[in-house]
Design brief:
Blueprint: H1 4-9, E1 12-18, H2 25-35, H3 44-56, H4 59-72, H5 77-93, E2 96-103, H6 125-143, E3 146-154, H7 159-170, E4 176-182, H8 194-198, E5 206-211, H9 218-227, E6 233-236, H10 244-252, E7 256-259, H11 261-267, H12 278-283, E8 288-290, H13 295-298, H14 302-313, H15 317-330, H16 335-345
Parallel strand pairs: 1-2, 2-3, 3-4, 4-5, 5-6, 6-7, 7-8
Helix pairs in contact: 2-3, 3-4, 5-6
The structure holds zinc ion (ZN).
Length: 349
């Protein structure tokens, strides 16, 4: 059996990781004190306990209260910079050498104090993207990690706003490598933002879509994401292993699968890791990787995720290495950058 230490020490890649899902409580507390924002607690330790209790409640509570609190502290360029910088520290601590970090600018416009609340923008989408990118750049130097940005559309916004978010991503091609469609898949199917995705078709931006995660239309949504939104990668794709046609399409078109097993289990979308069929996907040559999703928010790391999955599925070190190689292959990198990360994974400078 693979030990925790073995997996922790591996040079890893995380391709599906939300910035607002990975802010440590000490950072949150520091930002709240600086901005004089009232918190329901009076020390970083109590804040940690507050989150631990939220995690035992239902997922909707954690979404509203947990993400609500975190995003309320990500409403200025200064704080976005800090969160992005601290994310570099989190990555390094978990042995991650390359990560694609995603965030939805619509939740950081300067006056949205609660998750999903929209009003007039104080920060432009471009300002938000640039602030995050600056924080990442500083972190790359200090923590020796590499990062790229994925801009998400929180799919509840209307189609016009979705397009505006994509326009901002297109104006920041030095900072952003792809767009994503995130959040409530059950209520808002992929084609709601078809036009926004169409605007990236002949551009350098990659496309990934959260699909096959929530609701009763998961397979349908995966097809729509692939065929209409031309997704290069799918986030979650929980029922993939059970659908022969989807499997064949994903294999033939080298679609990258960003599996997030521990997140799926935490939210209650699966009860056992075996339901994802990851050994089967590996055996069939599917480009599947294992990712963290919202590590600090849900209270785990990528190492924890890989350890639990490896334990339950009896994965070997070669299997875990294959998952890393797949992640490298499906990463939104050019070939030169990919080679650099590969060297880093092998321990070369
Ligand atoms: Zn996600």
């Amino acid at each position: 059996m693979l030990s925790y230490q073995t997996i922790k020490q591996l040079s890893k890649i995380d391709l599906h990781r939300h910035l607002d899902g990975d802010v440590k409580t000490e950072v949150l507390y520091r930002l709240a004190e600086k901005d004089k924002i009232h918190l329901p607690v009076s020390s970083p330790e109590e804040l940690e306990k507050y989150f631990a209790e939220l995690r035992t409640e239902n997922f909707v509570d954690l979404l509203q209260k947990g993400f609500g609190l975190v995003t309320s502290l990500m409403q200025s360029e200064e704080n976005l910079y800090t969160v992005a910088y601290e994310e570099g520290r989190n990555l390094a601590e978990d042995g991650i050498v390359y990560a694609e970090l995603r965030f939805a600018p619509q939740y950081h416009t300067g006056d949205s104090l609660y998750y999903g609340h929209q009003s007039k923008n104080k920060l432009s989408y471009q300002q938000i993207i640039k602030a995050v990118a600056e924080g990442c750049k500083a972190a790359e130097k200090d923590f020796s990690v590499s990062t790229k940005l994925i801009v998400c559309i929180g799919r509840e916004v209307d189609a016009e706003k979705g397009r505006e978010i994509v326009h901002a991503a297109l104006a920041c091609l030095d900072e952003v490598v792809a767009i994503d469609l995130a959040c409530d898949e059950a209520t808002y199917p992929p084609e709601r933002h078809l036009r926004a995705f169409q605007e990236t078709f002949d551009t350098p931006l990659g496309r990934t879509v959260h699909a096959g995660e929530f609701g009763t239309q998961r397979e349908r949504n995966m097809w729509k994401a692939l065929k209409r939104l031309r997704a290069d990668r799918l986030g979650h794709a929980i029922p993939l292993a059970e659908n022969k046609e989807l499997l064949a399409y994903v294999k033939e078109n080298k679609i990258g699968i960003e599996s997030c097993p521990k997140s799926n289990k935490y939210i209650g979308l699966i009860s056992k890791y075996t339901q994802l069929g990851i050994p089967q996907l590996l055996a069939e040559g599917i480009l599947v990787s294992v990712n963290s999703d919202d590590p600090a928010m849900f209270g785990y790391t990528l190492t924890d995720t890989l350890c639990e999955l490896a334990g339950e599925e009896k994965l070997t070190l070669a299997d875990v290495m294959k998952l890393q190689q797949n992640a490298l292959e499906m990463a939104f990198l050019d070939e030169e950058e990919r080679k650099k990360i590969e060297k880093k994974m092998m321990g070369e400078k």
